[in-house]
């Protein structure tokens, strides 16, 4: 079997987690999580914005494996404020360093600079990381179905629920979507990026959105650039979006965010 990007990421992540546990025990992290800043309601914020407009999870992203450096003058606190001013419902902050040049401290800085709920964007394998997410202030975690087994996904989700956090479950294909459906979280992220080629295609959302059960909320992820694309996705009943690169490339992030959200397609039957 050929090694995928996710296999490589998993290998270094498991080493990182083992090293982190040497520095800080699970007990230490739990104590920090108990003293963390109070939870902000992530899913609620998204729903309330998506009702009439679009629910935007705006991503604080410095670099990526496919594009390299995206934002040289990177400033998590300033970007968080710009996203909030521009009308984002929530933030996503990459905390993975080897592939995305992210950092745990970026999440802490971004969240402290605004009042938006925050997703820890990372590759999660161990409940330790989930509790650590809360210790950093996170309000939501990501579970990537392509990188975990079913029992692992359940374990991560249960830990998040125990600590009061929301969960975004990410899928790329029909099989992953079927596996996601046995989990409890109502937030289903459809990632338009093909993890083998790194290319994005909104066809992924066009196809999978039809298969998502009515009681779940779809978040369309990756490769979104224009109001026109958002409006087209809205015709598929998708009103929530996770966007990083195209906003981070603008000098004026607040203005770019405002412009992207300016003219939402009106919901047909009161969504
Ligand atoms: O920068 P984009 O194309 O707007 O994509 C954002 C987000 O969807 C992407 O960063 C992402 C989606 N799922 C992930 C999982 C891990 C790391 C990153 C991601």
Question: Describe it for me?
Answer:
With 271 residues, the chain is an alpha/beta fold. The chain has one domain: TIM Barrel (Alpha-Beta Barrel). It is built from 12 helices and 10 strands. The protein has helices spanning 5-23, 26-34, 42-52, 76-86, 104-112, 127-136, 150-162, 174-180, 203-208, 227-234, 245-248, 253-261, and strands at residues 55-60, 63-64, 68-69, 90-94, 118-121, 140-144, 166-171, 187-191, 217-221, 240-243. An 8-stranded parallel beta barrel has the order 1-4-5-6-7-8-9-10, surrounded by 6 helices. It has a two-stranded antiparallel ribbon with strand order 2-3. Strand 4 (90-94), helix 5 and strand 5 form a beta-alpha-beta unit. Helix 4 (76-86) packs parallel to helix 12 (253-261). The mean pLDDT is 96. Residues 59, 61, 121, 144, 170, 191, 221-224, 242-246 line the site of indole-3-glycerol phosphate. The site of indole-3-glycerol phosphate has 15 residues, from strand 10 and helix 11.
Question: Descriptors for this entry?
Answer:
271 residues; TIM Barrel; 8-stranded parallel β-barrel; binds indole-3-glycerol phosphate; RibuloseP-bd_barrel; amino-acid biosynthesis
Explain the layout of strands and helices.
Blueprint: H1 5-23, H2 26-34, H3 42-52, E1 55-60, E2 63-64, E3 68-69, H4 76-86, E4 90-94, H5 104-112, E5 118-121, H6 127-136, E6 140-144, H7 150-162, E7 166-171, H8 174-180, E8 187-191, H9 203-208, E9 217-221, H10 227-234, E10 240-243, H11 245-248, H12 253-261
Parallel strand pairs: 1-4, 1-10, 4-5, 5-6, 6-7, 7-8, 8-9, 9-10
Antiparallel strand pairs: 2-3
Helix pairs in contact: 2-6, 4-5, 4-12
Indole-3-glycerol phosphate binds next to β10 and α11.
């Amino acid at each position: 079997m050929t090694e995928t990007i996710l296999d490589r990421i998993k290998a270094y992540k498991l080493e990182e987690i083992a090293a982190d546990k040497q520095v800080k025990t699970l007990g230490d992290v739990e104590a920090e999580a108990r003293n963390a800043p109070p939870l902000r309601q992530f899913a609620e914020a998204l729903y309330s914005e998506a009702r009439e407009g679009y629910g935007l999870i705006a991503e604080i992203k410095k670099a990526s494996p496919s594009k390299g450096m995206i934002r040289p003058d990177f400033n998590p606190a300033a970007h968080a404020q710009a996203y909030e001013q521009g009308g984002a419902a929530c933030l996503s902050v990459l905390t993975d360093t080897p592939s995305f040049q992210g950092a745990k401290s970026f999440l802490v800085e971004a969240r402290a600079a605004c009042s938006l709920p925050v997703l820890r964007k990372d590759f999660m394998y161990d409940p330790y990381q989930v509790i650590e997410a809360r210790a950093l202030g996170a309000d939501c975690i990501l579970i990537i179905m392509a990188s975990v087994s079913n029992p692992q996904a359940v374990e991560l989700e249960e830990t998040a629920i125990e600590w009061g956090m929301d969960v975004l479950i990410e899928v790329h294909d029909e099989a992953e979507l079927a596996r996601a459906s046995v989990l409890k979280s109502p937030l289903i992220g459809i990632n338009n990026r093909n993890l083998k080629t790194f290319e994005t295609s909104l066809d992924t959302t066009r196809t999978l959105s039809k298969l998502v059960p009515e009681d779940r909320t779809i978040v369309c992820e990756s490769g979104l650039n224009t109001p026109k694309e958002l409006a087209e996705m809205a015709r598929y009943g998708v009103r929530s979006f996770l966007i990083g690169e195209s906003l981070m490339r603008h000098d004026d992030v607040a203005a770019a965010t405002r412009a992207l959200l300016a003219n939402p397609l009106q919901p047909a039957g009161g969504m």
